[in-house]
Amino acid sequence: MQVFSRILLAPWAYSLFQNSIGATHARLEFARRFVRAQPGMSILDLGCGTGEFLSFVPGCRYVGIDLHDKYIKRAQKMFGGLSTFIVGSAEEAPVLCHERFHIVVCFGLLHHLDDSAVLKTLDGARTLLEPGGRLVTIDPCYVEGQAKFAKFLIGRDRGEFVRDMLGYVDLCSTVFGGDVRHEIRHDLLRIPYSHCILECEVGP
Length: 204
Hints:
The chain is of the alpha/beta class. It has one domain (2-201): Vaccinia Virus protein VP39 (Rossmann fold), CATH 3.40.50. It is built from 8 helices and 8 strands. Strands 1, 2, 3, 4, 5, 6, 7 and 8 form an 8-stranded mixed beta sheet that branches. Strand 4 (101-107), helix 6 (115-128) and strand 5 (129-142) form a beta-alpha-beta unit. The longest helix has 14 residues, at 115-128.
């Protein structure tokens, strides 16, 4: 698995793997049903990878942050004229960004972070949201009674901190309060997999 993880650090390999397992459909459904961005809105994508999510929020002001400079360079090459891409960690977002956003997206980010880093990232996201703005996240999760193969695959994810639904909800509730909307989906990829989607809103 370590060799495979190193391979995925190459931007072309990361994008190829993501698309082969159905990530395009997952991003489309995530954008359509949960992000619900309208043209003219501003979006911050934390852990943006190579920037593919930009294609699913047309007409929006988009800023992507990722720790891997190779991913960011590929994103800039593909989409640079349409957006802003920044090398840095999600925890540094309040320092790296000097504007507020209508929506902050974390697509497959939180399961790469321990609890302390998640709380710092979520707190930073909250400070960067406009009043009434939303944080929307999606991550693999463990679910009671889930398919054995799905559990097997999730256990071998590059992220070391895959949680169950309550684990994600509790972390978000600590920062955003108790009203965290959540949904479990098992149908977003071509392979058996379980995702937890969360939606949190900043009060007016």
